[in-house]
Amino acid sequence: MTLNYKLTAFNTIVWKEIRRFLRIWIQTLVPPVITISLYFIIFGNLIGRRIGDMGGYTYMEFIVPGLIMMAVINNSYANVVSSFFSQKYQRSIEELLVSPVPNYVILSGFVIGGVARGLAIGVIATFMSLFFSGLHMYNLFITLMVVLMSSIVFSLGGFINAIYANKFDDIAIIPTFVLTPLIYLGGVFYSVELLPDFWRLVSKLNPIFYMVNAFRYGILGVSDVNVWYAFTMLVIFTGALFAFSLFLLHRGKGLRH
Amino acid sequence: MTPAISIKDLYKTYDNGFEALKGISLDVAEGDFFALLGANGAGKSTTIGVLSTLVRKTSGSVQVFGQNVDTNSYETKLNLGVVPQEVNFNHFEKVFDIVVTQGGYYGLPIKLAKERAEKYLNQLGLWDKHNQQARNLSGGMKRRLLIARALVHEPRLLLLDEPTAGVDIELRRSTWDFLQKINRAGTTIVLTTHYLEEAESLCRNIAMIDRGVIVENTSMKALLRKLHQEHFVLDVRQELEQAPVLNGFGCELIDSSTLEVILESHQDLNDVFTELQAMNIQVKSMRNKSNRLEQLFISLLKKPE
Question: Whole-prediction pTM value?
Answer without folding.
Answer: 0.83
